Amino acid sequence: MTLRHWSGALAGLSILAVAGVSQAADARPVPKLVVVISVDQFSSNLFNQYRSRYVGGLRTLADQGLVHINGYQTHAATETCPGHSTILTGKHPNKTGIPANDWLDPVTGKSAYCLSAPANRLAGGLTGGNGPVGPDNMTATTLGDWMKDGGAGGRVFAISGKDRGAIAMAGHKADGVFWWREGFGFTTYVEPGQTDEARLAPVKAINADLKALYEGKPATWTYENAYCRTLEADYQIAGQSWRSQLPPARVQFDNTPLLDEVTVEGAIRLIGEQKLGAGAATDVLAVSLSATDRIGHGFGTQGPEMCEQQFRLDAALGRLLEAAKAAPGGALVVLTADHGGSDFPERQAERGFPQAQRYDLEMLVQLNTALKARFKLTTNPVIFDGSGLYVVDDRNVRLPEPLRSKIARVAADWLATKPGIAATYTLEDLLKVPLLRGASPEDVTLKERAAMSTVAGRSPDVTVILAPGVTPLQARLGGALSTHGTPWDYDRRVPILFWWSGGQGQERFYPVETTDIGPTLAHLIGVTPPADIDGRCIDLGGFAVDACPKRAEPPPVATPETPKKQGWLRWPFGGKDQ
Questions:
Q1: Residue 463 a catalytic site member
Q2: Of 3.80.10.10, 3.30.365.10, 3.40.50.1980, 3.30.1360.150, which CATH number belongs to 357-470?
C-alpha cells in the first residue's frame, strides 16, 4: 500500500473515531435487565440449518441481533456442566473447577456429580435426581457474583430444566436459582440456616399455577409443522428396527418441547413478578433451556423430533423476548449454548459420513488384559468414566504413586495406536500445557483443548480423544441414541448472539468464545471481573459506554504445541503469523 493510501485510510479512521464519539453521545442508556439464554446442545450447525425457517424469537435474534457465526466452547470436554460454567465466569473449565458432568472421586472411588453439595438439601423435601446440589465445586465466580461483590446492586436469578444449567450460570450469590422437577414444579437448593419457604418464595405462585395446568395431564407431543412430518424414517439401531416419528414410542415431559415451554413461562413470570429491569441497577436473569439436549440424546438431531423442537423453541423464545422488551429500563438478551452435538451415527453413516460409528468398548477389556500382564496385577487397573481412564484398585480408589503414573503412561501409549483413537494424554501431560490468553479458538490445538478441560484431582488419569464421528455411547432405544462431549467443531461451535430492542442486525464472522460473554456484560453494566479471566470484552456498540479497554496480553511463548499462534491478535486485524 502506498503512503497516500495509508494517509487516506488513517483519515478515514479519524472520521470514524469522531463519528464514534457522536454516536456514543446519542447511544441508548445501559439496559436495566440482562437476559442470558443457554440452549442446551444448540450447535451452530443446528442454528444454521433452521435459521431460514425460524419465524419467532430466533428469527428476531438472527435478523436484529449481533450474530457471531463462529462462536466456540473452546475446551475439549463439551458437556453441560463445564459448558455452562464458562458462560458467565469468563473462564475455561480448568479454572472454573468443572471439567465434566461427573468425575471419579480419587479418595472414595465413588462417582461425584459436578455440583454435588452434601451440606445442602433440596427444597420441598425432594430426593433423588442428582442429590443435594449447589455451587460449592465451582472455583470461579460469575457475573452475578461480581455484581454483588462490587456493590453494583441489581438482582440475579436463574431458571432451567436442569439443576446444572441454572446453578453454573447463577454462581455463588444469586437471589434465586430454580430448576424443574416434574410433579413438583421449580425447586432449588437450601443451604444450612435457610428455609424452604424463603428459598421457594419467588416461584411459589408460579408453581401453584403450573401445577394446576399440568397435574394429572399426560405429556403430549404431536406435529405442529408439516415440514417436520416429511422427516419420518426407519432405521436399524442396535439390531432393532426403530422409526423416527411423532409421537415417539414413549412420551415423557422431560424429553419433549414442554420442558422448554414451562421454563420460558417461569422466566417470563420471574421478570414480571420480581419486576426485573425496573430498578435503578441492572438485574440479570439466566435461562437455560434443556429440551434440545434431551431430544438430541433421545432421538438424534436430524429427525422430526428435533425439527418440531426447533419450531416450538422458536415460538417460546418469541414470548420471552416480548417479556424482556417490556422491562421498563430496557433489556439486552444474549443467546448461546453450553455445547453442540451431532446426530446418531447410524443416520450419519447413511448421509455421507461413513466414519460415524459406535466405538467398540471391547478395547477396554483388551487394555486391562495387557496392563494386568505388564504390571502383574490381579484386578483391572483402569476404568472408563466420563472423558477418559482412571487408574484404580478393586474399590475404584486411585492407585498410589508411582504405580498410577506408570500405568497411565502405558495405557495412553497403548490406546494411541488403536483405530478410532485420535489422541491420548496423561493427566501430567495436560497439567503442564501453558495456556496463554489471546489465541484464536479456531487455532487452539487438540492438546490445548484437552488442557482447558483438565482439573487436578477431578480429571481422568488418561484423557482419551476419539476420532471424529466416533461415539463411545452404546445405543439404547427408548434411552439415548446420540451424544456429545468431543473436542471436534460439531460439539464446540455454538451461536453467540446479542440483541436489544431497536438494535440493527449485524453479522460478525471473527471467532469469539463463550468466555467472552461474561466480561462483555460486565463492561456494559460497569462491574469488574477478576484479572485472571480467559475471555475478553467485545464492543457491542449502541450503548452509552466507553469502548472495551485494551487487555494487556502476555508475550507469546513458543512451545511444541503452539509455535506461533499464541501471540495472534484475534480482532480486528490479526493474522496467524502476526
A1: no
A2: 3.30.1360.150
